[in-house]
Design brief:
The chain is an alpha/beta fold. It has 10 helices and 8 strands.
Length: about 280
């Protein structure tokens, strides 16, 4: 079994404590030599400047960075100005998303902004960026169903997206069926599984419910038993490692981890999959 290519998602810090946590996370995970790391963008563009600063700081540590960019709360000109700042900083990878409106509101395009992620993808691709997008093995809560999600992903692929990173899932077959159905539908973008290490089962359940992610009964039962026995960390490691191993056995050669800026479990999973630590991280000023 070949060690998979790795990538990690970070979110920008909101305060000094968060800054220290981010750099602890980077120090723990960048030595695993990820293909790239991505940096998220808050609802409504709320972390726009922090995202940019985090991207630049991570690049200074030698990491290849994919910056998130959304259609929310900005005109086309403002959004492309942000993209040009990334380009000037050496960023060539963008995760293009429609984005979520703040406070749980419905998405409404800016009067002078991009109407959808398709428009944003086309503009970024035309500028020369490698564009990544989101994908949903379980139907997106706002979608008309699984077939509609796959058709929308095909449209994003045709608009210029070269890679699609999925929403997290808890069962390998969920991803594998989705991957195969996308290929049958003519999606040309690479489909990469998004892996969520489970640090807190109650929070993960709540998040999954909001995102429309199926929760297998045996997984819920396993965490309930692990909680009673005070071994949730061990069970979380075993579950994620088994999930990734099943994917690798089916030919998947890249994993994208949603780290939540909590590196320990992600690092342990990757090492269990055969990844080795390299002393490549530069000193943080």
């Amino acid at each position: 079994m070949t060690t998979p290519n790795l990538s990690f998602e970070f979110f920008p810090p909101k305060d000094l404590k968060g800054s220290f946590k981010l750099w602890e996370t980077a120090q723990a995970l960048l030595p695993l030599a990820p293909r790239y790391v991505s940096v998220t963008y808050g609802a409504g563009g709320s972390t726009r400047q922090l995202t940019h600063e985090t991207v630049e700081a991570l690049q200074q540590q030698g990491a290849r960075v994919a910056a998130h960019l959304t259609c929310v709360g900005a005109s086309r000109a403002e959004t492309m100005e942000i993209a040009e700042r990334y380009w000037a900083a050496g960023v060539r990878d963008i995760v293009a998303l429609r984005g979520d409106a703040p406070n749980g509101e419905s998405f409404v395009p800016h009067a002078e902004g991009f109407n959808s992620s398709l428009d944003l993808i086309e503009a970024l691709s035309a500028r020369g960026f490698e564009v990544q997008v989101g994908a949903y093995p379980d139907p997106h809560p706002e979608s008309r169903g699984r077939a509609a999600d796959i058709e929308w992903l095909r449209a994003k692929s045709q608009a210029g997206a070269t890679k699609a990173v999925t929403q997290f899932f808890f069962d390998a077959d969920t991803f594998l069926r989705f991957r195969d159905d996308c290929a049958d539908a003519g999606v040309t973008a690479e489909i990469v599984p998004g892996i969520l290490p489970i640090h807190n089962w109650k929070s993960a359940q709540s998040f999954a419910t909001r995102c429309g992610v199926d929760i297998p009964a045996e997984l819920a039962q396993g965490f309930e038993a692990a909680t009673r026995d005070n071994r949730t960390e061990l069970f979380a490691l075993a579950h994620a490692t088994e999930l990734c191993t099943e994917l690798m056995d089916a030919g998947v050669d890249q994993m994208h981890f949603y780290t939540l800026n909590r590196p320990e479990l992600t690092r342990d999973i990757c090492r269990a999959l055969g990844a080795e630590m390299e002393d490549t991280l530069r000193e943080v000023a």
